[in-house]
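DATA SHEET
Item: assembly model
Revision: 1
Owner: S.N.
Input lines:
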Amino acid sequence: MASEDTLDIEALKQAYLGQESPVATMEVEKGHVRSFALAIGDPNPLWTDEIQARKSRYGGLIAPPTFLRTLRTQRLEQLPIKHNLDRLLDGGSTWEYFEPVRIGDRITAVNRVIDIYARAGSLGQMLFVVTETTYTNQLSQVVATQSNTSIRY
Amino acid sequence: MNSFLFWEDVQDGMELPNLVKRPTTRQLVKYAGVSGDFYEIHYDKDFAQETGLPGVILHGALKSAFLAQLITDWIGPDGTLKKLVCQYRGMDEPGAPLTCKGKVTKKYVDSGEHLVDCEIWVEDTNGQKHTPGSATVALPTKTN
């Protein structure tokens, strides 16, 4: 019997599984990559020192591995279906890397909901949504994918 | 950080050099700014406590960034990070050091690439591991 406190997982899956978000686009900018590296406290020359980066096998500055987090895609599961789970936590990410992300690249990203499930946990009822984001550059190469689990409770 | 690591130099069970990070609230604000993640639990203490948290907490993605650095510092400019897995199992608050650690779990060759798997994690000053994970890297070899 459905109540306001019961998550209708089947309805959520029907509504969201397999759906793709609108495409988000980002130009990879030198200043942004540098600010990101400084914010995370990672002084690796590959992302901060143009001369050393040019001497490397990349031939120039590249972005650090989690930089693509800054390209945000719209969360599909805006959940018009009734629930009281207004607190959100990031459960974790799996990244796979295929090509370097270079200054000057134009990256597009699309996300797709690949799983939805509920668990009862220490924080009460929790809704897990697993989303996979695919990042592609201007040469149509997939540069990376990120599978991320968000937790609503 | 700039030295080269060869696949032949890696052994199963080998420990990665630790990476100590000292996150501050200021760092969380900077990270919010560069990442666009402005969720208030990372910099607004009242908001964080109203959601039941002890105080402001680190973005999970910032911990992933720390673990990514653990790996990229270790492998040097000729190594390649292929896969990074991080799970956020608990909250970490700024104001205390976090130590990123890792150890090699497997060395193997696949489709001509010389690969190494590692178990990695973030440990707080009490030895709690809230951010377990793993990584796969490809390394250069000494043989031609």
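QC remark: Chain B is about 25% helix and 30% strand.
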